[in-house]
Design brief:
D-amino Acid Aminotransferase, Chain A, domain 1, 7 helices, 17 strands, binds 2-OXO-4-methylpentanoic acid
Length: about 350
C-alpha cells in the first residue's frame, strides 16, 4: 500500500509552543496518519494529513458499542540528537492481538510502523528536548459502520496522533498515592482486560472518581472473582519489592501485558535480582507493609514510565510504603530505562529503533 503525503505548507504549520509543563495528552502536532478499511478494499487510502476533526455517522458502531482499541508508545529526543522509539514492534503485535479480540481487521505491522516513523519525522519539531519529556504516539482503530445492530463493524478508521508530553501524573517522578478498590472491578476472566480496548478505560472511571475524592491519584484493581489478588492500576502495571524478591502479578488474562512491565522484568533478571510473576494477594501486600517486608512498590507503563507508589489506601486505612519516598530500586530502573530511551547508555537488549529521514 502507498502512503500519500498531504502535508501543510511551511507557512501554515503552527509555531511549536514552549514544550514545558505539559499536561498529558492535551497538545497535538500538525499532522496525523489515517487509513480506511472496508471488506472489499481492505486497508486503503493511507495518508499523512493535517491534524483535524473527523466526521462520523452518528450511528457509527464505535459510538454505541465501543468497538475500539488503541496503543501508546513514545518517541524520545536522544542526547545525541537522534530520535528513538522504544520497542515499537511490541506495540504493533499487541495492537493486532487487540484487533483479533475485538473482531477488528489486523493491520500490516511493518507498514504501520513505517507510517509512524514517517509521521514522527515530519512532526519532529514537536518532540520535547528535555529529558523526561517525549512525543507520545497514539495509534487507534475504531468501527465506523452506521449500524445499531450489535455486530462487528464492516468499516474502520485507523489513525495515529502525536502529543508532546512530560510525566503522566502531576506528581512527576514523586511517589503517587493509590486507592485499592474491592468495590469496583476493571476486568474479569474471559473479558478484554488484556487488550487495550477503550471500554476497559471507560469502566475504570467511576472508581477513579471515588479515589480522587479521597485524595488518591489512581486505583489498584483486584481480581474480579475473589477481589483478593492484585491485578494492575489501569494506567500502569504494578510491582512489589519484598525482602529480596521483585514481584508482579502473573498475566492472568485480565491484566494488560505492559511493554514497560516486560522491560523491567528483563532488566531486573539481567541484574540478577530474584524476580517472580505470580499471584499476590492484597493481604500479602498489607502484611508486607506492616512487617517491613515490603521495601518498595512502583508502577510501570509507557505514559507512567516508572512511578513510585508512596501509599496505599485499603478498607478505610492508609498504609505508607518506604515512608512515602521513592525507593532505590524504582530509581535505578527509572534511570536505566530512560538512559536507554534517550541514548545515554548502550541498548544491550535491542529495544530501540531509530527514526530517520
Ligand atoms: C500508556 O501508558 O501508553 C497507556 O496507554 C496508559 C494511558 C491510558 C494513558
Amino acid at each position: 500500500m502507498d502512503l500519500e503525503l498531504k502535508l501543510l505548507p511551511a507557512e501554515k504549520r503552527r509555531p511549536v509552543p514552549e514544550l514545558k509543563n505539559l499536561v498529558f495528552g492535551r497538545l497535538f502536532t500538525d499532522h496525523m496518519f489515517v487509513m480506511e478499511y472496508d471488506c472489499e478494499r481492505r486497508w486503503h487510502a493511507a495518508r499523512i494529513e493535517p491534524y483535524a476533526p473527523i466526521s462520523l455517522d452518528p450511528a457509527a458502531i464505535v459510538l454505541h458499542y465501543a468497538q475500539t482499541i488503541f496503543e501508546g508508545l513514545k518517541a524520545y529526543w536522544g542526547v545525541d540528537g537522534r530520535i528513538r522509539l522504544f520497542r515499537p514492534w511490541e506495540n504493533m503485535q499487541r495492537l493486532n492481538r487487540g484487533a483479533e479480540r475485538m473482531c477488528m481487521p489486523r493491520v500490516d505491522e511493518e507498514f504501520v510502523l513505517s507510517a509512524i516513523k514517517k509521521l514522527v519525522w515530519i512532526d519532529r519539531a514537536w518532540i520535547p528536548r528535555e529529558k523526561g519529556a517525549a512525543l507520545y504516539i497514539r495509534p487507534f482503530m475504531f468501527g465506523t459502520e452506521p449500524s445499531l445492530g450489535v455486530k462487528p463493524s464492516h468499516t474502520y478508521l485507523f489513525m495515529v496522533i502525536l502529543s508532546p508530553v512530560s510525566s503522566y501524573y502531576q506528581e512527576g517522578f514523586n511517589p503517587v498515592k493509590i486507592y485499592v478498590t474491592d468495590e469496583f472491578v476493571r476486568a474479569a476472566p474471559g473479558g478484554t482486560g488484556e487488550v487495550k480496548a477503550g471500554g476497559n478505560y471507560a469502566a475504570s472511571l467511576k472508581a477513579a472518581e471515588v479515589a480522587k475524592k479521597k485524595g488518591y491519584t489512581q486505583v489498584l484493581w483486584l481480581d474480579a472473582v475473589e477481589r483478593r489478588y492484585v491485578e494492575e492500576v489501569g494506567t500502569m502495571n504494578i510491582f512489589f519489592y519484598f525482602d529480596d524478591e521483585l514481584v508482579t502479578p502473573a498475566l492472568s488474562g485480565s491484566i494488560l501485558p505492559g511493554i514497560t512491565r516486560d522491560s523491567v522484568l528483563q532488566l531486573a533478571r539481567h541484574w540478577g535480582l530474584r524476580v517472580s510473576e505470580r499471584r499476590i494477594s492484597i493481604d500479602e501486600v498489607i502484611e508486607g507493609i506492616e512487617t517491613g517486608r515490603l521495601r518498595e512498590c512502583f508502577g510501570t507503563g509507557t505514559a507512567a514510565v516508572i512511578s513510585p507508589v508512596g501509599a496505599l489506601y485499603y478498607r478505610g486505612k492508609e498504609y505508607l510504603i518506604n515512608q512515602g519516598q521513592t525507593g532505590p530500586l524504582a530509581q535505578k530502573l527509572f534511570d536505566e530505562l530512560t538512559a536507554i530511551q534517550y541514548g545515554e547508555k548502550e541498548d544491550p537488549f535491542g529495544w530501540v529503533t531509530l527514526v530517520e529521514g
